[in-house]
Amino acid sequence: MTCPTRRQVLATAAAATTAALAFPVRAQGAWPTKPVRIVVPFAPGGTTDILARALAPELSRVFGQQFIVDNKPGAGGNVGAEQVAKSAPDGYTLLMGTVGTHGINQSLYPKLPFDPIKDFAPVTLVAGVPNVLVMNPAKAEAEKINTVADLIRYAKAHPGKLNMASSGNGTSIHLSGELFKSMTGTFMLHFPYRGSGPALLDLIGGTMDLMFDNLPSAMPQIKAGKLKALAVTSAQRSAALPDVPTIAEAGPVKGFDASSWFGLLAPAGTPAEIVNKLQQESAKALGTPALKERLLAQGAIPSGMPPAEFAAYIAAETKKWAQVVKVSGAKVD
Prior knowledge:
Elements: H1 6-22, E1 36-40, H2 47-63, E2 67-71, H3 78-85, E3 93-98, H4 99-108, E4 120-135, H5 137-142, H6 148-157, E5 163-166, H7 172-184, E6 189-192, H8 196-205, E7 210-214, H9 215-223, E8 228-232, H10 247-250, E9 259-267, H11 272-287, H12 289-297, E10 301-302, H13 307-328
Parallel strand pairs: 1-2, 1-3, 5-6, 5-7
Antiparallel strand pairs: 3-9, 4-7, 4-8, 4-9, 4-10
Helix pairs in contact: 2-11, 4-13, 7-13
């Protein structure tokens, strides 16, 4: 057997050092040694999907393994959430959860196939976004609806004549509409889809009349003139659409506030070391100028909060949305 020369030993050590520097987080432990799946519980094209696909490449780069976005829509996000809840807690299956899956659905559905609190380990809040009330431009023009007040007048005069799309039962998009109907005494027919993407296609095509969509997914269509923005659902105006009023200031709907949020979660029991690594690197990525400015331009406000803080946030949101569900009278069988 030929012994390696001193030069070969030094070359091998240098190569190992270079590899360790290329993937500093991965070098600290065994995880990840294979691709990681981020389950998006809605169809492609919506804000949940947009945020997951914005963050995944950043995590792939820093961890040295592919973070793959896997769309599993259905039942207001419950299908994908259940799949993650029942996955092995090894860090290789994550959920891009939403205010729907972890703040609303347990109050809206009589029975869930998972526990939003006990079955998950919160990783980090990725971003918060306002919803935006958008209409099909042709419908708005035909009925002379240019403001929230115009919409309320028309809806009261023509109960059941407006078709309201949503990304699914129990989503903040659905609940924003239900809260609006409750606070304005109007009635519009609700049509749940399996995500914002397909709902927006029908809204643009004229099958649907209006929608309370998440701002990032609606923004390109608003800018292209394919959707008419009447108001945002947050308490304050959005910096991404500064000329669009809030629902509270645009019409007789004082106190209206229904925003959305999106965050990474892992199955309960996932090692704290993995959860913390994910949160730290996600926060770094969300804080980089390029990604931060990109998300802000779309109407999303990047976060990156630590796991314990995110868990407390989820608990507070669960309580808040339970009241919204009660006030709106919304139900899903």
